Amino acid sequence: MHNSVQYPIGIPGQKWTKQDVQQWRETTSVKRTYQHDVLPKIEALRATLDVEQYGALSYDTERFPLFALKTKSWCADKPTILVTGGVHGYETSGVHGALQFAKDNAQDFEDEFNIVIVPCVSPWGYETINRWNPNAVDPNRSFYANSPAEESANVMALVEQLGVPILAHIDLHETTDSDESEFRPALAARDGLDYFEDSVPDGFYLVGNTENPAEAFQTAIIKSVEKVTHIAPPDNEGKIIGSAVVQHGVINYPLKKLSLCTGMTDCMYSTTTEVYPDSPKVNEQECNDAQVAAILGAIHYLQKHA
């Protein structure tokens, strides 16, 4: 449905100028801090995981160092699982679900797998509760060569430096009410397009890969998560956020075409989680638990089938 509400920045029908981006950036503010919320949790894991700094954001290198967590018994002969969170910094359970898994579960699987966890890809977005980086660029549409998002470029460089193939990639996200109230209208305004209103699904869902859907892998994750939280139903057209539901709680995207995080490797198994934190049926801890359940469902499947 077309929405006539005009975003307050930019001229309708015209892409944003540098001045528009600057005006947008000036509307942002720090609402929580990476240094307080995230870095201490990473530091506390040094006894059980290898903590490696893989870069820093140029916006403020002291404030935004970037860290990855790796299982200690790393071996190039073992299959490698990549977990990413906070590609969209405002999606809170992506960050804290990744950290919860790192603290409570990662060690349990290090004899079978190498596991690398990047808990907060976009710390500026985390602090400002934003989907974009300060340049109004979406990191999760920027996983390609010569990326305009340094958040994405840093993660791609990290994965390349690992020097091992990635078997599976689980990218932790949320779909929030603010997607419709703020971020999609802003996107339309930035690109000089009309905004068409959509609905926010109430519940958890997954985004698989159109080119390699790995149906049984997705099913295993959904079964794991539905023990923790409810799964999003399709809308009246059999869709979730405009895409056809291909199985219970699962839609597919062309990952590489859209330059999504889970498309940055040629892994056999990939999924993007989508938790709905604004549901009255869940609380913050249950959202984190759902992210952990998704990772565990993926790993348990890989133990049997990979």
Automatic annotation (TrEMBL):
Any Pfam family from its record, for instance, is: Peptidase_M14
- Which GO molecular function, any one, fits this protein according to its record? metallocarboxypeptidase activity
Q: SUPFAM superfamilies under this entry?
A: Zn-dependent exopeptidases
Q: Which domain of life, per UniProt? A: Bacteria
Q: Where is the Peptidase M14 domain?
A: 30-306
One example of a Gene Ontology biological process annotation: proteolysis
- Membrane-crossing residue ranges in chain numbering: none
Q: Which InterPro entries match?
A: Peptidase_M14
Q: Which family does it belong to?
A: Belongs to the peptidase M14 family.
Protein name (database record)? M14 family metallocarboxypeptidase
